[in-house]
Amino acid sequence: xxxDESSVRRWPLPVLGLVLTLVALGWxxxxxxxxxxxxxxDVTDFQVYREAVGFWLGGGDLYQYLMVLPDGRLLxxxxxxxxxxxxxxxxxxxxxxxxxxxxxxxxxxxxALAAVLARRTGLLAGxxxxxxITLVGAGWLGLAASEPALHGISLGQVSLILIAVVVLDAxxxxxxxxxxxxxxxxxxxxxxxxxxxxxxxxxxxxAAANAAIAxxxxxxxxxxxxxxxxxxxxxxxxxETSRVGEPDVTRNKSLLGLLSHLGMAGPGRTALWLALAAAxxxxxxxxxxxxxxxxxxxxxxITVGLVSTVISPVSWPHHLVWLPLAGLYLAxxxxxxxxxxxxxxxxxxxxxxxxxxxxDLPLGLxxxxxxxxxxxxxGSLLGIxxxxxxxxxx
Length: 394
Known about the structure:
Layout (H helix, E strand, L loop, with lengths): L2 H4 L6 H28 L3 H14 L8 E3 L5 E3 L4 H6 L8 H26 L8 H16 L2 H9 L3 H13 L8 H9 L5 H8 L3 H21 L1 H9 L19 H7 L4 H28 L3 H15 L10 H10 L4 H12 L15 H6 L2 H12 L12
Antiparallel strand pairs: 1-2
């Protein structure tokens, strides 16, 4: 045995076997749930993407498309025109096959995120390969079994993919190319645009320029392919937030949702929300800048992600992947951070009543759901505490 081999930390075989067994059981449950979904095929968001794009390709107006749900609700296509262009491949496969491809892609994104978190927090330092693989697999399960991620996967949502793209762009992509993926993500969905401000505040000038140029080019492609819908989206539809959903519904966990659930309405609510959202954005971005300068770039990115979620007019449960991501980051750290992270992960396991979609909850449970908005505010205002001593780069 060499000196390097003797320094590798190994777990006792019974411990390794027990952890592997628990992880395998957890994945059995997750895969079983996804298999059940494949049989029922209630994949609303993916179906909206696919049918709206198909409607446009068939000569229809992208923003005139409406999907009628069994309860009578009408769902329009709410993304920028460039998003529709990127979603054209969803029309190439049958609905079930296309959704299964999206499941594989989203699970792959979660694996990449778990691996990045484990490496940057130093969790894998000195561990043998079996132990490292087991811990990454456990983290992967922790993300996949969370309500925000699993619900997004079941719907065939694009949010999780964009979150992974932004995180990988900010901490994995070499500085020369950093920002390009974020710019493209912002042209698909507006919320990643906040990371352009983050790049500027942290003096990542090249990344900010890359993001701005990539976003402009992608949006320009949208205008070239869909000139009429692009003009209408960027000058009119963008400001019709009711097309995404009403802010007062139970499942909206944003700051505006919190104010609405407390009984506020009208112009007064809007004015207060704008003032508070601006304050939260300023403080949250400042906290992210502090983390980045302290060598905790991933903690900074997660903080910005929480800010983007809480200040958005509408934040559905599948938008909140940043919360379990914060939980796993902290769980991979040491000391009190680890325990805080474990509590967060357990609190947002699939089925948690905190993220209920029901609108007929008793008042107590409905208000308890607003704990989520409070957590988002706390995470934004205080920032995610980075790994002590800074993160492991590379």
